[in-house]
Design brief:
Number of strands: 8
Radius of gyration: 19 Å
Mean pLDDT: 78
Structural class: mainly alpha
Order of helices and strands: HHHHHEEHEEHEEEE
Number of helices: 7
Low-confidence stretches: 81-86, 203-211
Helix content: 40-55%
Oligomer: single chain
Strand content: 5-15%
Shape: globular
Length: about 220
């Protein structure tokens, strides 16, 4: 099964569809209900505990990379047709690259995601460049809260305020705005805020604090 996953990773990394039909073919082959990835997850359920440990990480990597590639392809086509000013949404998180080895933090991230998915959680993601309302106001941050100060938050623009998100709770707000209840999701992702550099926290290690894990439940009463 590992060989099949690695072969799929290589194929996905080499794909470069040029039109809507090719993008749709990619989705059908890998991401649709009858695609390669859902079929691999079905086979994954039949593995023993030891086998799942070695296969699960690679399988989740394939899923995330394929979903990221699909978004990239869609955005590129949208940009080519003139519906967007750019071919990619720069507010979204980066797409993982299949070249090289995974950083220990990335391995830990994938492992945590795998555990939550087994518990029935979905993985939600959102904009890293956010507006004030989704990052602060909708989460009941008062106007005089210290996090709103320039010294603690990386603002890109003012009036209206645009900033690098300080937590992943902004994804909760966007999920709840969609109104599709119940919600059971985790929101792992990068966050950006001013912190003092020390032996335990430095930009070189992409500080663990910069990865937020926000489990969310929302049930209709």
């Amino acid at each position: 099964m590992i060989d099949t996953i690695e072969q799929a990773l290589r194929e996905v990394g080499q794909l470069n569809p040029q039109n809507e039909d090719q993008v749709e073919s990619f989705r059908l082959k890998y991401l649709s209900k009858k695609g390669i990835i859902p079929a691999l997850f079905e086979d994954f359920k039949k593995l023993s505990g030891d086998e799942k440990k070695s296969v699960g990480k690679k399988l989740n990597e394939l899923k995330q990379i394929s979903e990221g590639k699909y978004k990239q392809f869609q955005e590129a086509l949208s940009g080519n047709t003139g519906n967007r000013n750019t071919s990619a949404d720069l507010t979204l998180p980066y797409s993982n690259n299949v070249v090289g080895n995974l950083h220990p933090l990335t391995q830990t991230r994938l492992r945590i995601i795998e555990i939550f998915e087994r518990l029935g959680f979905n993985v939600a993601d959102g904009k890293e460049i956010e507006d004030d309302w989704h990052n602060f106001t909708a989460l009941n941050f008062p106007e005089n809260h210290p996090a709103r100060e320039m010294q603690d938050t990386f603002f890109i623009d003012r009036n209206p305020d645009v900033l690098l998100r300080t937590h992943t709770s902004n994804v909760q707000i966007r999920l709840m705005k969609e109104g599709k209840l119940p919600i059971r999701a985790i929101m792992p992702g990068r966050v950006y805020r001013n912190e003092a550099i020390s032996a335990r926290a430095h930009c070189f290690s992409t500080r663990w604090k910069d990865y937020m894990w926000t489990p969310t439940w929302a049930f209709m009463i």
